[in-house]
Amino acid sequence: xIPIAKLVxxxxxxxxxxxxxxxxxxxxxxxxxxxxxxxxxxxxxxxVGGGDSATQxxxxxxxxxxxxxxxxxxxxxxxxxxxxxxxxxxITVRDSATK
Length: 99
Ligand SMILES: [Zn+2]
Prior knowledge:
With 99 residues, the chain is of the alpha+beta class. It has one domain. It has three helices and four strands. It has helices at residues 10-16, 19-30, 84-97, and strands at 34-38, 44-50, 53-65, 68-73. Zinc ion binds at residues 58, 73, 75-76, 83, 85.
């Protein structure tokens, strides 16, 4: 199991992401628009978006630093923003952890 899976529960995501981004990110995850790989450090990185519009693809990463969830996405330079791409990645991590 990916170690960060337990850090991306629904209550955590609801806390760091706006309701609009939770909704949009859930739709992205439902569309299976997320491609993630586990990293050696226990996180994940990969691509979100794409489908018919490859220009919409964003590079995302989720990882743990000293028990704290960290993230990045190429759609923003605002480090505190947990965008829809990251919501989609978090949901995908959760789903894959329960399988
Ligand atoms: Zn993003």
